[in-house]
Amino acid sequence: MTRYEDPRNSSDDGERSRCTPAGKGRVVKPRSSGGASADPAARPASKRAEQLAGKIEREIMRARWPIGELIGTEPELIERYGVSRGIFREAVRILEHHRVVKMRSGPGGGLVVSAPDATALIRAAMLYLDYEDVSVSNLLEARLSLELHAVERTVQKLDEAGVDRLRAALQAEETSTEPGHHSHDIHRVLAEMSDNPALALFIDVLVNLTEWRMGGAGGTAHGAGDRETKVKESKQAHRAIVESIVAGDLALALHRTRRHIEAVHDYLVDAGPSVPRPAGGAAAGRTHEQAEPPGIG
User: Fold this and answer.
1) In degrees to the nearest 10, what's the CA dihedral of 152, 189, 247, 182?
2) The domain 119-269 is classified under which CATH number: 1.20.120.530, 3.40.190.10, 1.10.357.10, 1.10.10.10?
3) Which of 47, 51, 265, 274 could be bridged to 14 by S-S, CB 3.0 to 4.6 A?
4) Dihedral of the CA atoms 228, 233, 238, 243 (nearest 10)?
5) For residues 241 and 17, what is the distance between their CA atoms, to the nearest angstrom?
6) How far apart are the C-alpha atoms of 284 and 295, rounded to whole Å?
7) pLDDT tens by residue, the chain, 297 residues
8) Is 0.85 topped by the overall pTM?
9) What is the second-level CATH architecture of the domain 1-15+44-116?
């Protein structure tokens, strides 16, 4: 069983140390303000719950995520951390919201380590970027940079299982019966096949925001007929990208990915003010100037 830290044997009280302005590294204790007590018990209960949740999260991370392992029962953990039941339960609610633990009931129950779910994080990041009103140009510039890197890594690592996965994703897209739907799943598959979880996560966020924006654009500036035409072009572009990846032609795969994302950009800006194409999306450096439909998606 993984050993979790007993905070009574740790000097980490949740406070952040500060250095002197001269940068000499001398650690000083944070000053209290407004006459507030430095006693941890005097802090607001919500703050103490947040600090406890952070402490437990750090312990789980240091233990390298032992999924399914029992951290302790409620009475054990209340005693271990020296907090009230109310503060402990509030900390557990925070941790459950972050999807890092769950409280298991019954014999042998208690606080158990669980696997985080990226879904809530992806949605929160997408909503934040939409709130910040990120421009189409900035959105697609970021996608272009990340997806070109994902395609390069996928070409380098591709094996027979990867070829089968790409073809299965294309087949699922071809057989979709949802009218006027731009499938972005091939982008997610390529991101996952890059074997870089950080890259896959960020691409997923940007693809989700693109889907959201394309839903709005399709409902305003584009009629049903035009939308169906663009869906067909998108499928053609996806097939062309996959074909070049399977053939091991990195230059062509990058070129087709670039043209495809430029087409997404152009589709979206049709519904709003004209803005520059994403940086790096121009024809400079191309070695494949072919008359192929760029497609969207």
Assistant:
1) -110
2) 1.20.120.530
3) 51
4) 140
5) 51
6) 20
7) 555 555 544 444 444 333 333 444 433 333 444 444 445 554 687 899 999 999 999 999 999 999 999 999 999 999 999 999 999 999 999 999 989 999 999 888 899 999 988 888 899 999 999 999 999 999 999 999 999 999 999 999 999 999 999 999 999 998 876 655 567 899 999 999 999 999 999 999 999 999 888 875 544 445 555 778 888 899 999 999 999 999 999 999 999 999 999 999 998 887 554 444 455 543 333 344 344 545 554
8) no
9) Orthogonal Bundle (1.10)
The CB-side HSE value for 252 (13 A sphere, CA atoms) comes to 15
How many angstroms separate the CA atoms of 266 and 163, rounded? 30
Q: Which DSSP string corresponds to 169-201?
A: HHHHHHT---TT----HHHHHHHHHTT-HHHHH
| 8 A C-beta contact, residue 214 and residue 183 | no
Upper half-sphere CA count for residue 92 (Cβ side, 13 Å)? 21
- Confirm if 68 and 112 have CB atoms less than 8 A apart: yes
C-alpha radius of gyration, the chain, whole number: 25
Two tokens at 95?
A: 């941790």
The full set of domain ranges for the chain reads 1-15+44-116, 119-269
